[in-house]
Amino acid sequence: MSGDHHHADVNSTPVSRLWASLGLTGGFMLAEVVGGVLTGSLALISDAMHMLTDTAALAIALVAIHVGRRPSDLLRTYGYARFEILAAAFNALLLLAVAFYILYEAWKRLSEPQEIQSGGMLVIAIIGLLVNLASMRLLTSHKDESLNVKGAYLEVWSDMLGSLAVIVGAAVIWFTGWQWVDSLLAVGIGFMVFPRTWVLLKECVNILLEGVPPGMRLADVHATIAAVPGVTSVHDLHLWAITQSQPSLTAHVVLAEGVDGETVRRAIESRLRQEFDLHHTTLQMEREDRAAKEQVH
After folding, report:
1. pLDDT for 32-85, tens place per residue?
2. Residue 140 carries which DSSP code?
C-alpha cells in the first residue's frame, strides 16, 4: 500500500487575499444596498444580492479553510478537507436561490415600473465594477486550486458582469427614460448565474458521490495498471477524489507467477504519478491462485 497525502485545496489557498476580497466585497455590498433603495433600481439591488452571495462565499471559504486544515483524527481519518466541498455546494445552492428571487422581483416590476434615478445608479455601478475587478485580481491565481476559491471567484466574476450590465442600463435610462430597462437587466443578471452555478454544483456533487475526477477515465487508468510488466489482471478498481486536488485510487492487482510484488507495486505507482498525477494510491497485490479463489466466493 502507499499513501502520499496532499492537501493543496486548503494549504495553498491565499487566506490573506480572501480576507482582503471579503473586506472589499462586503463593504461595497452595504453601500450598494443603500444605493439601490435610494435610487429605486432593482438592477442595483440584484447586484447587491450578488454581492451578498459573494460575501457569503468568501466568508464560508475562510471557515472551510480553517476547518479543512484541522488534522485527521480517530473519527475522520481523511481529516476535514472535504468540508470545503460542502461549503462550495452550499454557495451554489444559495446563489441559485438568490437568482430565483431576483427573477420573481423583476417579473413583478415589469408590470409596475418604478422611477429610477439613473445618475446615482451609474455612479454606484461603476464603483461596484472597480471593486469586483480588484477582488477578481486577488483570487485569479488560486481559483483552479480550490473549489471554494473557484466558487467565490465565479460569483465575483458574475457580479462583475452584472455591474457592467447595470452601467449600460443606467446609461440607457439616462438618455431614453426607459424605466423598464432596469427590470430587464435584473432578469439578465439572474439568468447569468445559472450556467456557472450549475457547473460548480455538478463538480461538488461528483466529489461527494465519489465520482471519477474530471479529466480522468477509469478505463485508461485500468489499462495503464494492466500494462505494467508482471501484472496479470486488475479488479476492484476505484477512483475518486477527497477534494478537487486530491484524487485517490484503490485496486487489487493480480501478479504473474514468480514476480516480486513490491517491485511491481512501485512500478505501478510510478506510472500513475507520471500519467495521471495520482499520488494517493492503495494497491493490494495478489497471486493468481488467491484471486481465483476470491472470484469463486
Report:
1. 778 777 777 777 777 777 677 677 777 777 777 777 677 777 787 777 778 878
2. G
Residue 43: exposed, middle, or buried by beta-carbon count in 10 A (0-12, 13-18, 19+)?
A: buried
Cα–Cα distance between 81 and 59 in angstroms, integer?
Answer: 16
Sign of the C-alpha dihedral, residues 222, 224, 227, 229? negative
pLDDT at 122: 84
Cell 471593486 identifies what position?
A: 131
Q: What is the pLDDT of residue 295?
A: 52
Answer for the pair 57, 159: CB distance below 8 angstroms, yes or no. no
Q: If DSSP codes are grouped into helix, strand and coil, which group holds residue 284?
A: strand
Alpha carbons 81 and 70: distance in angstroms, whole number: 8
Q: How far apart are CA 288 and CA 48, in angstroms?
A: 64
Are 107 and 184 within 8 A, CB to CB? no
Q: Which amino acid would we find at residue 44?
A: L
Is the dihedral angle over the CA atoms 46, 51, 54, 59 positive or is it negative?
negative
Closest among 171, 166, 160 to 125, alpha carbons compared: 166
Q: Per residue in 71-90, is it b (16+ CB within 10 Å) or e — as a string? A: eeeeeeeebbbbbbbbbbbb
Specify whether the CB–CB gap between 114 and 40 falls below 8 A.
yes
Whether residue 229 contacts residue 253, with contact meaning beta carbons closer than 8 Å, is answered with no
Residues forming a β-bridge with 247: 241
| pTM score, whole prediction | 0.68
Cross-strand pairs, 252 = 235, 284
pLDDT score, position 249: 95
DSSP secondary-structure letter at 216? -
Percent of the chain's residues with pLDDT above 90: 23
CA distance 35 to 8: 40
**Residues 147 and 85 sit within 8 Å (Cβ to Cβ):** yes
DSSP state of 1: -
